[in-house]
Amino acid sequence: MKCLTVQIEINRLPDNNVQAFDEAEFLKRVHSVNRYPEIDRPEIGKGDYHNDFISYNFFTEQLPELWQQLRQVLVEDADYFVTLSPVAIIACEGEQGWDDYRLLHHFDANETTVSI
Q: What are the distances in angstroms from CA 101 to CA 84, 92, 114?
């Protein structure tokens, strides 16, 4: 089983406000392709979120198929991606797990990304 994760960087949201991210819209989109992530998040109202992120973790045996489905609803819709792109990192495990992860999207366009 491999993991693909979408990380929302809280420090890239307006005023570091985690509530500025429309999680309901994100989940509606991934649910539309029958994907239901495990969500890891900091506790709201507990401390400084300057370096924190929310992780949406998707597990599968078929990473290329999963990425194709998620790309369709998250990336290929330009109107939505313009809001997601500046705050998100998308990566998946490689053959050696996270030791050789694949960076699929990074909010910093200078980072090298790959496809699967």
A: 21, 6, 10
**What ranges do the domains of the chain cover?**
2-106
pLDDT at res. 42: 73
Partner residues linked to 94 by β-bridges: 97
Q: Which CATH architecture has domain 2-106?
A: 2-Layer Sandwich (3.30)
The C-alpha atoms of residue 13 and residue 87 are separated, in whole angstroms, by 7
Does the pLDDT of residue 49 top 60, yes or no?
no
Q: Using one digit for the tens of pLDDT, what is the confidence trace for 59-104? A: 999 999 999 999 999 999 999 999 999 999 999 999 999 999 999 9
pTM of the model: 0.89
State whether residue 39 is helix, strand or coil.
Answer: strand
Which pLDDT score, from 0 to 100, does residue 47 have?
55
Burial class (CB in 10 A: 0-12, 13-18, 19+), 58: buried
3-state percent helix, strand, coil for the chain, nearest multiple of 5 = 35, 30, 35
Q: Which residues contact 41 (CB under 8 A, 6 or more apart)?
A: 18, 54, 55
